[in-house]
Amino acid sequence: MARWVGGDGFEVEAIRLDGHTLLRVRQYGFLVAYCRSIAEVARYVRLDDLVELVTLPVAGARTRG
Predict the structure, then answer these.
(1) How many other C-beta atoms are found inside a 10 Å radius of the C-beta of residue 3?
(2) Which distant-in-sequence residues (6+ apart) come within 8 Å of 42 by Cβ?
(3) What is the C-alpha separation between 65 and 55, in angstroms, rounded?
(4) List of residues 6+ apart from 8 with CB closer than 8 A
(5) Facing residues of 31 across strands?
(6) Backbone CA torsion sign across 13, 15, 20, 21
(7) What is the side-by-side order of every strand in the sheet holding 3-5?
(8) What gap in Å lies between CA 61 and CA 26, rounded to an integer?
(9) Can you tell me whether residue 20 is helix, strand or coil?
């Protein structure tokens, strides 16, 4: 799933919880909130500070399948 980081140690991650997709907001690793919308995330984090983290494959790594 997608993951974003921002200033002041904030991290936002799209997760599945009890069959629902939520946005988990953490600061310095501690849970701040579970949000159902971007508007709710904006209560805690400046959206224009968020940068998406992209995981690149490691050279020589095996793919699942």
Answers:
(1) 16
(2) none
(3) 18
(4) 27
(5) 26
(6) positive
(7) 30-35, 20-27, 10-17, 3-5, 51-52
(8) 30
(9) strand
pLDDT digits (tens, 9 = 90+) for 18-62: 999 999 999 999 999 999 999 999 999 999 999 999 888 887 767
pTM comes to 0.81
CA dist 40 and 46 (Å) reads: 11
Cα distances (angstroms) measured from residue 19 to each of 15, 16, 30 = 10, 6, 23
Q: How far apart are CA 26 and CA 45, in angstroms?
A: 10
In this structure, what token pair is assigned to residue 47?
């959206």
Per the structure block, which two tokens stand in for 60?
Answer: 């020589």
